[in-house]
Amino acid sequence: MHFKTVAIVGRYQDSGLDAPIRSLANTLVSTGCSVLLEATTAQNAGITEFPIGDYAQIGEHADLAIVMGGDGTMIGAARELAHSKVPLIGINHGRLGFITDIPLNDANDALLSVLKGEYDVEERSMLEGRVVRDGQVLYSGVALNDVVINRAGRGGMIELRVELDGVFMYRQRSDGLIISTPTGSTAYALAASGPLLHPSLKAFLLVPVAPQTLSNRPIVLPDTGTLNLTITALGRVESGGSVHFDMQTWSDCQQGDRIDVRRSQDTIRFIHPKGYSFFSTLRQKLGWNHIPLPNDENE
């Protein structure tokens, strides 16, 4: 891939991004690339000296999008650019950074290596889903991390009937259910005691949130089918239920609604500098390489 036009997307709520964005943009210009700043990023950073465009224009003109922020910023950009197939590279300006894997201090050197062709391409799957009531689609969305169904209020649990391609799997009473991609297995699913999935797997991960019975355990399924999740009961009917597609929420679910989830036809391509390893990321972010010493608990 040749990156002639490179877009820059920044974390919108961050202050102090103007300096690193300008530095990054000037590095790109010095190599002969054209720069296109995402409109909200440019407005919040107060940068006007480079061309500005919305996501539609980025999808049409950019050969690469650099996302400077946290994983949430990357997820938002991925959702916007998935259909246009623009590859993404992430520079971590957030906290954890599972998918924005380049440290800010290494950004310029890493970017120069990528522009020279020294990079690896990784493809990640996405989910698409819809909320159906009486045969009518009320809401639809896509997700890079997960689709989450949960109770909207504080009282009671939500009860779901779970099917795969129309074949009954189980009923579950819980606070909610996470349907995760392998990418999302390091996000909410991990916090709810789900397993880690390698990003290359073609699979769904179902993780119950605070289930009523211990027999409701996480399960990994092939992503070739469609999950059908019907809300059969709500702890309090008036409280309703919610469905979250990453950062997009539908909060008007009612008893009898069905949520269909399947693998999206769109995928996300991540660009990594040479030497990237998913396992290295886990060691750094989750402390896999840490072996407690006998006296650690007393220190």
The helix content, as a percent range, equals 10-25%
Q: Mind describing the biggest β-sheet?
A: 6 strands, parallel
Q: How would you describe the shape? A: globular
Helix-strand pattern: EHEHEHEHEEHEEEEEEHEEEEEEH
EC number: 2.7.1.23
Protein name: NAD kinase
Family: Belongs to the NAD kinase family.
Pfam family, one: NAD_kinase
Task: Report on the architecture of this protein.
- Its cofactor is a divalent metal cation.
- It contains seven helices and 18 strands.
- It has two domains: 5-117, Rossmann fold (3-Layer(aba) Sandwich), CATH 3.40.50; 127-265, Sandwich (Tumour Suppressor Smad4).
- It has a six-stranded parallel β-sheet with strand order 3-2-1-4-5-6.
- The longest helix is centred in the first third of the chain and has 13 residues, at 18-30.
- The model has no long low-confidence stretch (mean pLDDT 91).
- Strand 16 and strand 17 (248-253) form a beta hairpin.
- It is globular.
- The protein has helices at 18-30, 39-45, 55-61, 71-81, 107-115, 188-191, 278-286, and strands at 5-10, 34-38, 52-53, 64-69, 88-92, 102-103, 119-133, 136-143, 146-151, 158-164, 167-174, 176-180, 203-209, 219-222, 227-234, 241-245, 248-253, 258-273.
Provide a compact summary of the structure.
The protein has 299 residues and is an alpha/beta fold. It has 7 helices and 18 strands. The chain has 2 domains: 113 residues, 3-Layer(aba) Sandwich (Rossmann fold); 139 residues, Tumour Suppressor Smad4.
